[in-house]
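Morning F.,

Quick status update on the modeling queue. The single chain you submitted on Monday has been processed. Sequence for confirmation:
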Amino acid sequence: MSVKAEVLNALRWSAAGRLVGQLGSWAITIYVIRILDPADYGLMGMASILMPFAALLNELGMIPALIQSPRVDEQLIRQLFGFVITSTILIFCVLFLAAPALAAFFNEPRLTPITRVLAAAMAVGGISAVPNALLERELEFRGISLVEFSSMIVGSLATLALAIEAFGVWSLVIGQVVATAAKTIGILAVSRFRLTPLFGWSRLRSFVTFGANITGQRVLWHAYSSTDVLLIGKLLGDHALGVYSVAFQLATLPVSKVFGIVNRVAFPAYARLQHDNRQAADYFIASVKLTWFAFCPILWGLSSVSDEFVEVFMGHNWEEAGVVLALVPLIVPFRVILFLIAPLMDGLGRPDLGLRNLLTSTALIPPAILIGTLKGLTGVCTALIIASIVGLAINCRRSLGLLELSPGALVRAVAPTAIGGGVMYVCVWLVRTLIFADASAPWRLSGAIITGMTVYALMTFFINRDAIRQCMTLLRRQALPLLWKPVSDNSQPCGEPEMSLDPDDWESFRAAAHIALDDAIEFLRTVRQRPVWQPAPELVRIALDAPVSTAGQDFDSVYQEFKDLILPYSTGNTHPRFFGWVHGTGQAGGIVAEMLAAAMNANCGGRDHVGIHVERVVLGWCKELFGFPAQASGLLVSGTSMANLIALTVARNARDLRRIRAKGVGGHPRLVAYASTEVHECVIKAMEILGLGGDHLRRIPTDEWFRIDLRALQDRIADDRSCGFEPFCVIGTAGTVNTGAIDDLDALATFCTAEKIWFHIDGAFGALCVLSEELRPLVSGIERANSIAFDFHKWLHVPYDAGCILVRDGDLHRSAFSNAPGLSRQPSARPGGR
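Structure tokens below.
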């Protein structure tokens, strides 16, 4: 499986498990919030402040190093497992002893037992760190997702039950313990991890440098991200901290939960691209664009209805949370960019840049929040916004240089969404203020949500359709951009520069072509996982109906449009359960064959090249298969429809070659042909094209097996002759499209020989029964036909289009189409034929 397919599969499973779990968990949490007091959440926030640091020190960055390392073996894994077990025990002891100091710092004695219980839970979770990392390393997120879903639900239910029984803050503590224990048990079961710890450092030294950078970066991350909890808890108290922490979690919920998914997938994915900065840059910009598109309307929408949200869902105890929900969501989309940069730097092997980014943020955020506490929660949130924007500007300028990206590329990626979100915010504010000002909170909230969704949808349709296409692509598990842009080659030494269609960089084109080939193979390999057929949505049709552009598009844009707008909505005949029509499925080797043929780009209409010889060889094989003589002729054509037209042309001209070619059919207005009522409509169209008319194809009734009725055929020919008509051809069918019926070909051949009528067989798919010992008797007599039309793209599953016409009399075939004297080709240029 390609990296693209593995990443998308990992995202799908990780997102499904965690998001479903979070939906259930937060549905319960909202109910619990209404039961518990903000001070309970404040205590939980104080007690949890040391846990992220402890978890990071527990493995000293060794776990990310395990994921990033190109090669691992059993001894390395065992030593890492031994290291984690040892450090887990040590960290638990430190936290156990430090709990009273933490309680004294916040002047809250209840923190001592709470901290110790949470430390024990952290120690239990440490047991699964290595097995979990091994699963993440292989992008095996299906099992992880199922475990996380189950553990979150179990932990939430435990919290709910205890909250109802008035356990207060302990309902939160015990719920977390239950969730951690459930996850540990689940990960051990899913990973089937059975290795025993090995206590030693010999194999871990190579991880120390990488792990140290990762650890330093993540410790700083938690330092600056926990500063608000520390300062608010110390300076404003547990009630204010509870209000802030719950409101902040709600404000950042969409991003924090999804980025728990994205980052754990992005880090190992970027690690696989650590030598391809350009592709990593494409991934990064696409990620920013999609995350802004997904989160901006939710976050800014929440900000615009913060008061109504608090009143409807949280209750009157939480009124102070309104200011946090109004301000924090405004900055979260900008923080998203920092969240996306972190795994990018780590995966590309530059955790030092990530560390410098966090040093910048750490230098800005804590002082800002400290100053903000002077104005309460409003001041804290305002300071956070200002410091975050300044930090983002500095860090983006530093990090984007590694990928050779300009700040303008980032601005262009988010601008359409930002404009749409801003317009939505203003419209929601106007509706709340002017229309629903006197309505109850539920009605104000409903009206605002409907307004916001409508406005954002309209803005997206008009200015941000590209984001819709990319989302559709991601959902269909096809999201790798190509890298090639064709430009002219200005290597001409003198005069005007040569205009070339060559790619500017052949190696980039080679990489792009490999991606396209991988996509094509993956499309066939995973065909059973998709519907047989699906209609193109109206948005896709609108996108395809765009007016012609005279400016042109680069290759990657065109290819992306192909994957978004065309590939998912094919006929469906590549699916094994496509039973609608007589279509071949094609086969995997055909992808390569079509690619090689396109590289040659051979015109097989003439000239002296090997393509003509290959066609003659294939026709020679076909003559042998059908028992035709060596002097027979033939052509490879687009399909049986064209082959039937050619055969009927030869049969018609054989009646009076010179007159018909010179004067047309006017001299033979009464030529008629015969076929059963089951004949394919392409034969009728061929009669019309040849100027003979559809009425001059006599459609003969069939017998109980849907074969042409020979007696009725004989009678109709006799009647036509008596009326002055001239029968020139009988078309037998080897496999009708309605029932698969095969006419009595042997009897028809005998009859046509006796009546001196051309005998043609439409064998679009049934003719190839000759390849089967068991089925060959069904087409007995096919070798006696004057001409046979059949397809390679049906039973032989050659890619469309590929058909064949064989004509027993090669001279008649050539005479029907050869040029007038003076324009004839040289013998070596004669297409097909002998």
